[in-house]
Amino acid sequence: MQRQEAAVSTGEVLVAMRNLDKYYGGLRALAEVTLEIRKGEILALVGDNGAGKSTLIKTLSGAVEPDGGEILVDGRPVSFKTPKDATDAGIETVHQTLGLVDTLDVPQNVFLGRELTKKVFGLFPQLDQAAMRRRTHELLQRFAISLPTLNEPVHSLSGGQRQTIAISRLLLVEPKLLIMDEPMAALGVDEGSKVLDLVVKLRDEGLTILIISHNLEHVFAIADRIAVMKNGRLVAVVPSAATTREAVVGMITMGASGVRTEDRQWLS
Ligand SMILES: Nc1ncnc2c1ncn2[C@@H]1O[C@H](COP(=O)(O)OP(=O)(O)OP(=O)(O)O)[C@@H](O)[C@H]1O
Ligand SMILES: [Mg+2]
């Protein structure tokens, strides 16, 4: 897979996490994590099972409240108590469960929870199916997403297509940051690479993306920078073009002591 450079990242910080801590009883899931997400970049978060990746993104999506530290969005401190707080700040997350309703069709899923209505006789609100279908069509076209049909219940669609619909829903609100936890994990090779293409396209449209993946081939194909976690700590944040897969494996398995001399400058 060919690496693709960021088209629009300015280096400006969109989200800053400072000294984030999270305890589950005696277990320290996050230990003083300080990490910045830059506008317009794809930042990949990697690390072994239990490293703290999901916990970290949950602090950004309003699902987990950190016990210490702070989060800033566009330089302003935020405190997310619920997922809605994060959404209001422009942060949208694609969960592994996708949150689709199998029996509904594509536009109904895209507009789930934010249905468009129209007034009949200027009085009675009614779902505006035609407008939702049109907006869905426009949205899919804008990102060159092709689906065999919009009218079938989504359970008839493939894993990759379902993933695409879950992402499309979030694009309706034009988020500042899109977070994805293992979006390619359950997909075949072809479908996975389509989702990767979509992620790159979204970045090129100006979106900022934080993505968790265990697949280093994927990570190196799309990410501008790679953040490595181990045992709740951030080990290093390396530009993908400046490192190698072997070097990242070293950091994942051995933490700071596994960092090559030439990557020491990226240590956290
Ligand atoms: N709700 C919870 N209650 C108790 N412990 C938790 C909870 N959520 C996570 N943990 C623990 O916190 C640590 C970090 O978990 P986390 O899910 O963030 O890891 P991860 O890097 O996402 O791992 P994976 O790659 O397996 O998804 C793990 O030891 C995990 O068991
Ligand atoms: Mg996880």
Number of strand segments: 12
Q: What is the annotated CATH architecture of the largest domain?
A: 3-Layer(aba) Sandwich
Query: Number of helical segments?
Result: 8
**Considering the protein shown, what is the CATH homologous superfamily of the largest domain?**
P-loop containing nucleotide triphosphate hydrolases
Query: Major sheet: size, sense and barrel closure?
Result: 6 strands, mixed
Mean pLDDT across every amino acid position? 91
Cα separation of the termini = 29 Å
What can you see in these coordinates?
By secondary structure, this protein is of the alpha/beta class. The protein is built from eight helices and twelve strands. The strands form three sheets. The protein has a six-stranded mixed β-sheet with strand order 6-9-10-3-11-12, sandwiched between helices. The chain has a four-stranded antiparallel β-sheet with strand order 2-1-4-5, with helices on one face. Helix 5 (159-171) packs parallel to helix 6. The mean pLDDT is 91. The structure holds adenosine-5'-triphosphate and magnesium ion. Residues 53-54 line the site of magnesium ion. Adenosine-5'-triphosphate (ATP) binds next to strand 2 and helix 1.
Itemize the secondary structure elements and their pairings.
Elements: E1 13-24, E2 27-38, E3 42-46, H1 53-61, E4 68-73, E5 76-78, H2 83-88, E6 91-94, H3 106-110, E7 117-120, E8 124-127, H4 129-142, H5 159-171, E9 177-181, H6 189-204, E10 208-212, H7 216-222, E11 225-230, E12 233-239, H8 245-254
Helix pairs in contact: 5-6
This protein binds adenosine-5'-triphosphate and magnesium ion.
Magnesium ion is lined by residues 53-54.
